Amino acid sequence: MPTATSRSLEAYKDLAYTHLNDPANIERINKGWAGQAADVLQYKLTHAGAGQGELSTLIKKIDGANQAAKDIDKRLLPLLKAGRAKATGKKAVELDQDIERWRSIQKALDGVERDPVAAGRQLRVLTGLDGIGEVTNLVEKAFLGAAKML
Question: What is the DSSP letter of 33?
């Protein structure tokens, strides 16, 4: 299994971004590295399935959806929850809605492997976007916004 070196495109410069499900790491993240962390996410999503030989487009999309679902769970939702813990009033309500929306998107992405057509329809309803690739780009943008919000 290959490992990421500090110069690798899939390596976080601020290691706190690697374990955002630990609240202590969320408090330690450097917002200055949020853009680079979002680039890592995008690289991983874009290169899902790479190095596995000749894969069909569908298999690559499934791998990308699986990676995006994992990133929502392990990185985006913890950031949104941390922001929610500090928010009050209208902002708190908006973050509650965002968290629920991203949970729904994650669930749809998890379903891509079982039924790509139905999952694609559900993602279109949830996001208004066509295609898994567009949804994975949305994950990166949401991550960047959430990281900068803290």
Answer: G
Choose among 128, 132, 131, 81: nearest CA to 103.
81
Q: What are the angstrom distances between the C-alpha of 5 and each of 8, 107, 114, 140?
A: 5, 31, 34, 22
Tell which phi-psi region holds residue 137, choosing left (phi > 0), alpha (psi between -120 and 50) or beta: alpha
Single pTM value for the model = 0.80
Q: What is the 3-state secondary structure (H, E, C) of 1-13?
A: CCCCCCCCCCCCC
> What is the Cα–Cα distance from 21 to 127, expressed in whole angstroms?
25
pLDDT digits (tens, 9 = 90+) for 61-110: 888 899 999 999 999 999 999 999 999 999 999 999 999 999 999 999 99
d(CA 82, CA 129): 27
Where does the pLDDT of residue 1 fall: very low under 50, low under 70, confident under 90, or very high at 90 and above?
very low
> Contact, 48 vs 66, CB < 8 A?
yes
